[in-house]
Amino acid sequence: MGMKVEQVLHMVGGAGETSYATNSRVQEKAIFEAKPMVEEALREVYKTALPESMVVADLGCSSGPNAFHVVLEAIDIVDDQSRRLGRPPPEIMFFLNDLPGNDFNSIFQSLEGYEEKLKEEKRERILPFYVAGVPGSFYGRLFPSRSVHFFHSSFCLMWLSRVPPGVESKTGVPLNKNIYISETSPPTVVESYQEQYRRDFTTFLKSRFQELGFGGRMVLSFLGRTNKYAPGGELSQLWGLLAEALNAMVLEGILQKKKVDAFNLPFYTPSMEEVRAVIQSVGFFDLDRVEIFKSNWDPFDDSSDDRIYDNVISGENVAKSIRALIEPMIARSFGEQILDDLFSRYAKNVARHLLEEKTKLPVFVIALKTKV
């Protein structure tokens, strides 16, 4: 892509129509589904470590309203556990991590509102807590050794640390000619994506193991795939419709073919078998619990059936949510002037697809604990 992922991989900031704050309902659903596992992990961490001060880190916090979910959950659970055990409440230190381009300003501007919300609930006591931002990639060390009690991450681990090197030849010729792996991708491209995922997730797990203290745990949620065949995964369809919109703009002379051919997303949705294999190969964690649920493409469609109620509106909703995720990368590669046109085309492509099939996204939620 000719760019560092850290420079362009961030959600759209602010609170506008295309911002992540306005279009983050898919992540919100994942946080809701993961809540029982998060609560259980926090209870076990507290009972095991009995810390006077507790450290909780949210990796890939982004900038929308979801950034403080884990903060509020941790305050409630730890307060309840300290009461049950008859212990004085611990102080809690929250670290909110994301890449440097994240809109941290929005997060901290909204912090006051969350503090007021706690006061308005007229609680008997509010645990003393502190919040700090930690910019940097979680594919590497972020915290001192044995300093963190609990890690949480939602909708982040499908993003890779880089575009896999195998998407182009040694002379720089694009091999994939698609923005993600698909049925037309050469086997070497698919293997390169898989190897990059294994390398990144291995680095992630090793880094977190060094940072977790006694009894430490993690709850991670991310998009996966139910199809063992990587090019046939559910996200391949979603990205394929965006690639279709880009290629249509090439045919109309709006975009250069060589630029579109060279554009690849630093993204990979693993199968559960791949996730388990990496965890086992690293050897530092026990996979304590696994949940898999399906989320509709349209983040505002909460129905559980296979019926599409308005494919046009659903197409627009999907386009807005995807735009909130990748607008900076698209703008960097093709210019901001194409954004409205591109995502309008994409919305129509998604709407057409939804008339044929109500495709859903598999979401993996896993709870990990350090081996004794």
Automatic annotation (TrEMBL):
- Cite a single Pfam family from the UniProt record: Methyltransf_7
Q: Gene3D superfamilies this protein is in?
A: Methyltransferase, alpha-helical capping domain, Vaccinia Virus protein VP39
Q: Which UniProt keywords apply?
A: Magnesium, Metal-binding
The reply on keyword Zinc-finger is: no
Single GO term (MF): metal ion binding
InterPro entries reported for this sequence: MeTrfase_7, MeTrfase_capping, SAM-dependent_MTases_sf
Highest taxon above the source species:
Eukaryota
Does the UniProt entry include the keyword Magnesium?
yes
Question: What name does the UniProt record give this protein?
Answer: Anthranilate O-methyltransferase 2-like
